[in-house]
Amino acid sequence: MAAALGRWPLWLTLCLGASLAVDRGNFKSCEQSGFCRRQRRIQPGNSPYQALLESLQLGPDVATIQLVNEVTQVPLLLELWGLTGNVTRLRIQELSPLRPRYRVPDVLLGDPPAERLEVTGRDEGTLELSLGPGGHRLLVTERPFRLDLLRQRELLCSVNARGLLVFEHQRRRRDSDPPKDPPGEEGAAQEGPEDGAGSTQSDKPAEPPAEPEEEPGAWEETFKTHTDSKPYGPTSVGLDFSLPGFEHVYGIPEHAESLRLRPTEGGDPYRLYNLDVFQYEVFTPMALYGSVPLLLAHRPRLSLGIFWLNAAETWVDIGSNTAGKTLFGKLLDYMQGGGETPQTEVRWMSESGVIDVFLLLGPQPADVTAQYGRLTGTQALPPLFSLGYHQSRWNYQDEADVEAVERGFEEHELPLDVLWLDIEHADGKRYFTWDPAKFPNPRGMLERLAARKRRMVSIVDPHIKVDGGYRVHTELRARDLYVKTKDGNDYEGWCWPGSSAYPDFTNPEMREWWANMFAFDQYEGSTEALYTWNDMNEPSVFSGPEVTMHKDARHFGGWEHRELHNIYGLYVHKATAEGLIRRSGGRLRPFVLSRAFFAGSQRYGAVWTGDNTADWEHLRISIPMCLSFGLAGLAFCGADVGGFFQNPGPELQVRWYQAGAFQPFFRAHAHLDTARREPWLLSPEHLALVRAALRRRYALLPTWYTAFYHCHRQGIPVMRPLWMEFPDDPHTFAMDDQYLLDRVLLVHPVTEPGARGVNVYLPGEGEVWYNDETHEQHRAPQTLYVPVTLSTIPVFQRGGTVIPRQDRPRRSTEAMKGDPFTLYVALSPQGTAQGDLYVDDGISFDYATKNAFLHRHFHFANGTLTSSSADPRGSMSSPAWLERVVILGVGRPESALLTTHGERGLGGFGVLGWVFGILGWVLRGVLGF
Amino acid sequence: MAAARGRPEVPPGVISGSAVWGRRRAREARTELPFYDPSGPFRCLDGSGSVAFAWVNDDYCDCQDGSDEPGTPACPNGRFHCTNAGHRPRSVPAAHVNDGVCDCCDGTDEWGSGACENTCRERGRQEREERLRSAARAREGFALRQRLVQEAAEAKREKESRLGALQAARRELQARLGPLRAAKEAAEGPEREARERHRPREPTQDEAGAAEAFAELDGDGDGRLTLEELRAHPELDGAEIEAALGSGGSVDSGTFRERLWGLVRERLRPQDPPEPPQTPPEPPQSPPEEEEEEEEPEEEEEEEEEDEEGPEQVPPVPPQEGEGPPQEEPQFDEATQALIDAAQRARDDLAAAERELKEAEDGIRALETELGMDFGPEGEFSYLYNQCWELSTSEYLYRLCPFQRVTQRPKNGGAETSLGLWGSWAGPEGDKFGAQKYEGGTGCWQGPARATTVSLRCGAGTALRAALEPSRCEYLLELETPAACRELPAGHEEHDEL
Fold it and tell me: What sequence ranges are listed for the domain Glycosyl hydrolase family 31 C-terminal (chain A) (predicted)?
């Protein structure tokens, strides 16, 4: 739902003036954020840091080297790992910190396995380490300190080449009282003290000699009416990375920005700080609801990733030596053989924590996403129903309204899987309750929905109404599980219910308690058909600085909010998903939608792009935003169809349904103050177009589900930028108005009003593409002008692929269970094709715990379609069968033979023969797999 | 759900029993329809093709029109026909066949699992009973409606004749006004002269006012009023006043009264005499819930009227010029007094005539408005005019005054919100009088002005039955009224048998 501060009288006046534009004054610029200002003032140059090469210690996994700041003499510890699968990790922290620094827990799946490092070369001032079998080498330069990462003779990436390593070491406050309660003892929440530097605290009591001049704001900072007490002073960290040969970088969601990141010189850096931004605008580097500090870089033959594991406020500067040069200028450089090699500079700056970086060395795009997936986990396999269509609105008012809306879907023969209830359903915004007047019988309502194979999602936000009569509040208070203020009281702020407190989800005990709240006897009125939506989990605090929590608030273990702000939302998501798993006895998959996120959130469910607006710009930006999410692991992404704020016209609404039908999370949602927009309120003509878009979505669900399975297993996004599949075609590198669904479909939604046609780029030297509707074949590469009407969704199937569909237009995904499949075999110019189909029960963990799944591989060559198992571990009996095979790219085939490699539980193919039908020549009536 | 037009409704599947695919088993059923003839190939009903009869209902779609699969979900555009014996036959999308949801009351759509019970008889019975009940309601309502039509016609005739009478009265009054004005002028001349002879004595009220104002304006109290002192009162700013002040730049109290008081009086105490109250609207014909005060039609002043509970305050008729309260009237000699009395009578007569004219005009306007309203083809809705109905929900008190306005008041206190003023009849085509639209209510944040649709439904009484806000700032009220009842054809209950 909503950042809709406007609903509160206090903010109403602020919002009335600026209609439909973000109020930038509510959010900090780099200049207004003390550490960003301090760091950015440091210009590239000679680094004051020196690597003490003689301090090298080579352990079985890790190499450590001390770094010393020649000005302050403060020593740092550099740790280096060569991780299996082409990943290099480097971590920098103080050798003797005054107080432990926060090292982000619960993001990495575990300690990533490391390769043994070896010293392979050494001369005066340089050390060469080899990083395992990948052929990667790391050069450590002594003075000034820098790292260069090479693959054979090729330089991939340099670290601190511009001398922007910044480590604001902890210091004692000069004036007077030191901070009271450093959380040293109880503080090391995560990785235990053995590798922490905290134990060496007493070894080096000597004060560093030359403290730099402290500027105002180092120990206290004020933004608008809020003062941040900063009891530990300046603690920020920063580091630069040079990427020679790269002109294209991506990632670091969430920003309302093009897929390709733009150079930030002359403006603000990209900001990562989870914020509830009211009526955000497109094409700005401003922070939004979620953060994943993963940046990807791509050039022909090489993709890299930089994963900066830090949960504090973070800014990222992008520099490019070719920025501003025209294409002609670049060409001229090239022809004259001179000019610089294009190079991208990336600079990370975080307010606190340590420097902990994973360099994902690819080399292919899918290798980078897989490397990231191995570190932080892949997208949880969604329950099948959640890939269907979701109908939401703030708010469906009562049980009768829910009934009427669902009846509308029935009467107009529109498929629907999930109806959503926003904040008004709860009794006075006390989550886990129901408004007794509007929802007197939630269980009955849920049962009626379930009887028609549908489900419901209710919102459960992490702000808890401060109300002595509200069980959630009284228990959390009694158990002392709320976030605290700097003075140790329960932190309270203003949110939807009025005065609210914030559960400390960083505390495992809190998450445990929360998860148990989803038990059917705890969340009264809930059933297995009820799933959950976590909104406002940045966290949103209407009365707080930048509409979020004060940075000096205190969490479990004594950590300040500033250290872990960006991971708070992940913990809410995690605890909720855990609750949904637990209520089913661990049997069923959860579905939880979250607005805030961090690295690793993909393990807990879906995310969406928050409170967008019903205009064409926001429709367009939904594509690059979801592509960026996907690159950062968050494959289950969507945007509110129709736009949250304001009313879409019928054309925009239809186009948004068409685009949404081809995005992973497909939900229509609308603000409380907008006009109703259920599809049947459109004219019959527009309604028919929405119905067609919904049916196309449902017919392709087997392809979607199979794509999610690939993602779940391999970490490869479901919605992919073209360059992931065509990595050597520079035409695709900045494209973000079209994309691939898995590797099989190319989608170019129409996002312009009154469009008569779109230019679709069909990539792939010597390849062919087939129009998904007309089956017309097109050669590639080419830019194809596709004339469009309001009914057109330009979608192309790649020659050489096979996609499974279920073409019976059922009322929901569950009603499709057992329906037969149709294979669309799109032949390559060589007359071959392959593809796969993944099937399981769609709802339980049996696929993982009992191998109850089918993963079939299809291969077509020489007139023979062969079906074989893509994963012999899986077996399951399914009522589904293969009813039809449509072959694109041939006339009437001479012959066709279907064979299946005999596997347990599966019948052989039986072929009835070729028939000419609605789809042209098809193979009719095929049994089993 | 209506069947797609142009395609015949086909009863459920025909099968010869041979087309069985693996675990698939199309339903065995028989049909009398001639085109499902197992003795030969099946021709698709749209003529698009022909398939072996074994392919009918074999759960594979062969015909473009879906006619080869009347009993299976194979065709995306197919329809499945439920006989629903005991209830109403129905056609459902073929995609509802064997999807695990019971759509047909006879359960035939789930022939694959047989999981659905046959509930047609029970549902048929319930529906028949409900139909009888609603028919009874409709008949009762229609009888009432006929009475309303009659009463409306009578009331209309009565109003028209009242209008005629008022129009005649207006003509007569307009004709009288001229002579009365002349008589007043004629009487006031001698009166003024007679009064002059009696001056000066105690200052009249006006003179006292002038003296009071002089003292107030004379900031330094020196007995002279200067330009600066006048300028201290911005409401008195103006070239006219400065000119009247004269070249001397200051005046004493006598000069002030003569030259300036006339100009200053209005500006200093603007007493725009309020309009005399309008003729109160027609007394309602026994409104059931009418308890609040009559309201002015001006919606915009709603907020200000907020605290004016209780009876309407009738502002006093302002004193005519030169007219003083009688008790302060000095003693005059008989002759003078007679002149004054005569002038007063002339003034009173004129004022009375003007008042009467105003009343007549107000009455005419109100009647013309009412008579100009569209109260339905037979005026059956006219009884709703000038009445209000209320409905209390958990949060709000809704109030509908048909043909005038809709309002909403939060029950836990707070200001009343206008949900719209009378706009127009807004029923769907063919049923124009099925709904009313009220528009231009209080504006919404980031949205349009509030508006309300009132849907009218047949009932034996008049009452608000539901108030919803289906969309932010768009309201839906349901008003039950006999006026919305239609005549049922005889034997309606038995017709359209289940």
Answer: 715-803
Residues on chain B touching A438 (C-beta within 8 angstroms): 394
CA dihedral B467, B470, B475, B480 (to 10 degrees): -40
Are B446 and A645 within 8 A, CB to CB? yes
pLDDT single digits (tens) B412-451: 888 999 999 999 999 998 899 999 999 999 987 767 799 9
Q: Which element (helix H / strand E) includes A294?
A: strand A294-299
Interface predicted TM-score (ipTM): 0.86
pLDDT band at residue A650 using 50, 70 and 90 as cut-offs: very high
SS3 category, B358: helix
Closest Cα in chain B, distance from residue A776 (Å): 21
Residue pLDDT, tens place only, A846-873: 999 999 999 999 999 887 888 888 999 9
Tell me which of A627 and B11 has the higher pLDDT: A627
Q: What is the DSSP letter of B259?
A: I
Catalytically annotated residue among A276, A461, A504, A535: A535
Catalytic residue among A367, A611, A615, A742: A611
B457 min Cα distance to partner chain A (Å): 19
Q: Do B22 and A927 touch (CB under 8 A)?
A: yes
Structural domains in chain A, sorted by start: 30-176+195-376 (2.60.40.1760), 384-459+515-537+563-719 (3.20.20.80), 720-797 (2.60.40.1180), 817-920 (2.60.40.1180)
Confidence of residue A204 (pLDDT cuts 50, 70, 90): very low
Q: How many angstroms separate the CA of residue A283 from the nearest CA in chain B?
A: 23
**Residues contacting A848, CB < 8 A, separation 6+:** none
Closest-CA distance of chain B to residue A620, Å: 23
B100, A917: Cβ pair inside 8 Å?
no
A203 is catalytic: no
Among the ranges given (A124-133, A490-499, B240-249, B379-388), the one the predictor scored with the smallest mean pLDDT: B240-249
Q: What is the pTM of this model?
A: 0.82
Q: Which of A7, A437, A808 sits opposite B73 (nearest CB)?
A: A808
Rounded-to-integer distance, Cα A625 and Cα A260, Å: 10
3-state secondary structure of A42: coil
Q: Which of B1, B18, B23 to mutate to test the interface with A (most CBs of A within 10 A)?
A: B23
Q: Which of A494, A555, A547, A487 is nearest to A226 (CA)?
A: A547
B23/A contact by beta carbon, under 8 A: yes
Q: What is the CA radius of gyration of chain B?
A: 40
> In A, which residues are within 8 Å of B59 by CB distance?
820, 883
Which stretches of A756-904 are assigned E, i.e. beta strand?
757-762, 768-771, 777-779, 782-787, 795-798, 801-805, 821-826, 833-840, 853-861, 864-869, 882-888, 897-900
Binding-face residues of B in 137-166 toward A, CB within 8 A: none
Helix (H) or strand (E) holding B302: helix B302-305
Whether the predicted pLDDT of A423 surpasses 80: yes
